Amino acid sequence: MKISTIFVIICLFSTSLVAQTSGLTYPTIGTSIPIGGTGDWSTPANVIAADGLDAVSFPFSFANEFTDRLVARAFGFNIPATATILGIEVQINRGMTGSDPSSNIRDNEIALVKAFVSQPTNKADLSEAWPLGPTAVKIYGGAADLWGTTWTP
To answer: Which value, to the nearest 10 degrees, does the dihedral of the CA atoms of residues 134, 108, 27, 36 take?
Structure first.
């Protein structure tokens, strides 16, 4: 069984005089950070585009296990200095392959990093299993969700 994610996209909603969106922005860097998980991400750089190449992890066991941290960063946003950020939406294309649907791969942590510090708001969906078979997009946050903190351009 493998866990895969194809891409991570962040969309910022901001306003200056009128409401604007930065649009979907892909990261330019993907890395696997060891945190004691049972599976590292063998191709973390594949989170930078929706091109059919997956970031893949093979945890040793799927019973109450977790992978190392998959980090997507360097989004290169171009937000006017006078804008106010109203919300952040994160889209993750996620899925798993294998023959045991009882494995129940689930989110563990979905968080944003601000000034090199992981923010405490965890948007992980702990109840919904990742799809078995084709990947599907999961949306976290939204147009009015600041993930528990304030943001400046």
So the answer is: -110
Contact 92, 140 (CB under 8 A): yes
Beta strand pairing status for 19-21 and 69-73? unpaired
Query: Which amino acid would we find at residue 49?
Result: A
- Angle (nearest 5°) at CA 36 between 129 and 54: 50
Residue 102, SS3? helix
Does residue 58 have a pLDDT over 70? yes
What is the per-residue pLDDT for 6? Answer: 40
φ and ψ of 144, to 5 deg:
-120, 20
Query: pLDDT-derived band of residue 63, with 50, 70 and 90 as boundaries?
Result: low
Written as one letter, the residue type at 101 is P
Reference 12, options 126, 130, 147, 127; nearest CA is 147
Angle 5-76-134 (CA atoms, 0-180°, nearest 5)?
15
Helix (H) or strand (E) holding 86: strand 84-97
H helix or E strand, kind and range, residue 12: strand 2-15
What is the mean pLDDT of the segment spanning 8-13?
51
Contact between 4 and 55 under an 8 Å Cβ cutoff? The reply is: yes
